[in-house]
Amino acid sequence: MTEIIIPIKSLTLAKQRLAPVLTPSERVGLVLAMLEDLLATVVRIDHGKLWVVASDDTVFDIARKYNARPVCEQQAKGYNEAVMLGLAEVSANSNVTVLPGDIPLATGPEIAALTAPAAADKRHIRLAAARDLQGTNGLFLSQRDVIRPAFGPDSFSGYKYASHACGLRPQILEAPGLALDIDTSSDLHDLAMQTTCGATHEFLGQLRGSVTSQLIDRGAA
């Protein structure tokens, strides 16, 4: 079965692009709610070991509720470095998937398709793009060292290039739930319009009315 790594940035740096519409504590609450929804979805599918890489005990408290194994990042050095910490915990020949923590609408079937085990004797890469087709919201590797993690701006094209460079044709998944990661107020508006249950839905419902109205008004404009 495929092992899964979920890196979570330091909560002190949580979702700073949402500062115009959410307070620091609200941004932390959003990160934790989205992580809870993602973990609740992951545990409903077959998978191998589940790893959460973070530097905050609050994140690990949530991770343990879903039998995820904590990987403590002693000093935050960046997202790709956190991914590498997680990969170091994975057996060399194990299938592994990296998921961001801010995709609360990801569905079980989407994650199951992304993490479906590959044949042991073949190298394989599977990708799920962010909705801007620039970022990468799901990376599957048949072995942890098939290609080096390189998340960030335009990583989706970068992963396709890296795959071809090592003689592989990546499998591209169409997965709308995986595609919506939450970075901007527009993303948050779209999430508010689509979510119907779970921790993130509950969190959004608890936001002060002015913020919720602002998000809805922006989307309707």
Description:
It is a single chain. With 221 residues, this protein is α/β, with parallel strands linked by helices. The chain has a single domain, classed as Spore Coat Polysaccharide Biosynthesis Protein SpsA, Chain A (Alpha-Beta Complex). The protein contains 9 helices and 7 strands; from the N terminus they run βαβαβαβαββαβαααα. A 7-stranded mixed β-sheet has the order 3-2-1-4-6-5-7, sandwiched between helices. Helix 1 (24-42) links the parallel strand 1 (3-7) and strand 2. The protein is globular and about 55 Å long. The mean pLDDT is 92.
Q: Mind sketching the topology for me?
A:
Elements (H helix, E strand, L loop, with lengths): L2 E5 L16 H19 L7 E5 L2 H9 L3 E4 L6 H11 L6 E3 L9 H8 L9 E5 L6 E6 L13 H11 L5 E3 L2 H4 L5 H10 L3 H9 L2 H12 L1
Parallel strand pairs: 1-2, 1-4, 2-3, 5-7
Antiparallel strand pairs: 4-6, 5-6
Helix pairs in contact: 1-2, 1-8, 7-9
Which CATH class is shown?
A: Alpha Beta
**Structural domains: how many:** 1
Largest beta sheet: strand ordering: 3-2-1-4-6-5-7
Q: Which regions are unreliable across 5 or more consecutive residues at pLDDT < 50? A: none
Q: How much beta, percentage-wise?
A: 5-15%
What are the secondary-structure elements, in order, as H or E? EHEHEHEHEEHEHHHH
Let me know the average pLDDT: 92
CATH architecture label name? Alpha-Beta Complex
Q: Quick one: how many beta strands?
A: 7
CATH homologous superfamily label? Spore Coat Polysaccharide Biosynthesis Protein SpsA, Chain A
Please count the helical segments: 9
- Largest beta-sheet characterization: 7 strands, mixed
CATH third-level topology: Spore Coat Polysaccharide Biosynthesis Protein SpsA, Chain A
Shape: globular
Distance, first to last CA = 46 Å
